[in-house]
């Protein structure tokens, strides 16, 4: 896939097993997928798919439905993925309560995101306790979904730590799409945006990926001073007023600084 490392010495059996796991992820169903569906979707023979699934069952990376006729991702895969934040210096126990408090303070969704090559991935999301469900924003990006760095507030934080040449390489890896009137679709516009992020220390997504979502993002830094993650608040554009922006940014910066200190940030 574009923007990802390409193996120099690929092992085909491993690739095929991973293709099955990715197909199950991308076509998730509460009822699971049949052997025929997985075979057709991955282009592998049924006998090969069955052997791969049998091995993945042993490791609990997939599980069978109650009738034994369908397969879906297992809790072993979930457990494996849950260790990624800690491996990236993010102990969620240290930051979850702070992000939950921030969500309740604003009454809006708060996201925790990391960088994956030229993409941003939301790994955790916090909802306010006292906002009626009818008034809650419907998140346009699901947990685990990869989004280009250039079209998200958190992604722009990571771009701001790159050289301009690296910013352009990231931009070119995923062709820009004009999904909204404010989407960034030219290299010049992106470089101007990232220059501004570097100056102000925070990033905005002004409805660039979804027209009804405004985001403010601030960086989380570790003991080396490197941005290891970003937090963002997602606000319906109808609730975002210009005079609220700077006070909210300052509160976001304060929360991010407190979390960064817990991660060892010396600043």
Question: Would you write up a description of this structure?
Answer:
This protein is of the alpha+beta class and 267 residues long. It has two domains: 12-81, Winged helix-like DNA-binding domain superfamily/Winged helix DNA-binding domain (Arc Repressor Mutant, subunit A); 84-262, Beta-Lactamase (2-Layer Sandwich). 43% of the residues lie in helices and 19% in strands. It has helices spanning 12-26, 35-42, 46-58, 75-82, 84-87, 92-106, 153-159, 164-173, 187-200, 242-262; strands spanning 33-34, 62-64, 70-73, 109-116, 119-126, 146-148, 203-206, 213-221, 227-236. The strands form two sheets. Strands 6-5-4-9-8-7 form a six-stranded antiparallel sheet, with helices on both faces. A three-stranded antiparallel sheet has the order 1-3-2. Strand 8 and strand 9 form a beta hairpin. Helix 6 packs antiparallel against helix 10. The longest helix is centred in the last third of the chain and has 21 residues, at 242-262. It is globular, with a radius of gyration of 20 Å. The mean pLDDT is 87.
How would you sum up the major sheet? Answer: 6 strands, antiparallel
CA gyration radius, whole angstroms: 20 Å
Q: What share of the residues does DSSP label as strand, in percent?
A: 15-25%
Count of runs of 4 or more consecutive helical residues: 10
Separation, N- and C-terminal Cα atoms: 37 Å
CATH topology of the largest domain: the name is Beta-Lactamase
The appropriate CATH architecture of the largest domain is 2-Layer Sandwich
